[in-house]
Amino acid sequence: MFKSLQLSKSDAGFSAAIVDTDESQLPAGDVLVQVDYSSLNYKDGLAITNTGPVVRNWPMVAGIDGAGSVLESTHAHWKAGERFVHNGWGLGESRWGLMSGRARLQGDWLVKLPAAFSTRQAMAIGTAGYTAMLCVLALERHGVTPAAGEVLVTGATGGVGSVAVALLGKLGYSVVAATGKASEEAYLKQLGASRVMDRAELSAPGKPLQKERWAAVVDAVGSHTLANACAQTRYGGVVAACGLAQGADFPATVMPFILRGVTLAGIDSVMAPLARRQQAWDRLATDLDPAKLEAMVEEVPLARAAEKAADLMAGKVRGRVVVKI
Question: Parallel, antiparallel, or unpaired: how do β-strands 2-10 and 60-61 relate?
Answer without folding.
Answer: antiparallel
